[in-house]
């Protein structure tokens, strides 16, 4: 590439880099700095509250070994693993239904995508009513379970509600991948006598894999930052469903900005590590598949 072309390319991407610096890099640097200070905590020699900020180094990160942070970290991980796994399976099934239906296709797709269009706060309130002591859930199973109180049942309620809401999102992205698969591929498989399972496992799934990987990655990012659904459904400060985002919010509302920033930095690092591993494992595989198909062509 000539020098002039390189300068032109740099000029074209400079607005994007500037926006990223303002909305991503600067807040991260500010949070990293804030995590090393405390404000208005402690008393001086005369018994008055210390005003202003005070440098404490890595003392705010000491809470990382505390029971509350470990619990929030575990809850976040459990919610991410459970919801993403369920949503992937159900999303693929929804995509196959939306892609295969011939009559009433528009109605079927609209009905499947409605949960995803519902705002999370409204969805949380709706599922809170469903899981009330005298709600629909207990009426169906014939038991009196207190779903919105502390316990494993609260985790299960959040997982069910989140899966109901966001599985259609996975289905929508997978549907886009299904629609670009040539019909002649399925016709050739039918001629070769492939069963429905063989067609799905050896043709549909490999060809839809790029779209599925993007959908799963987006859902992982969203699930790791889960906050609003447990907050609305179960309530504030519930040990059973408190996530890292909820912990950061609670610390900040209590004016403990230093610990809040420290927990936020750890959450960002956790998300970045998960994304890096995910992209390295599956992204490299996708590139290898693309090179293989290009070589065969």
UniProtKB/TrEMBL annotation:
Belongs to the binding-protein-dependent transport system permease family. It is a multi-pass membrane protein. It comes from the Bacteria. It is found in: Cell membrane. One of its GO terms (biological process) is transmembrane transport. GO terms for cellular component: plasma membrane. It comes from Nonomuraea terrae. This is Sugar ABC transporter permease.
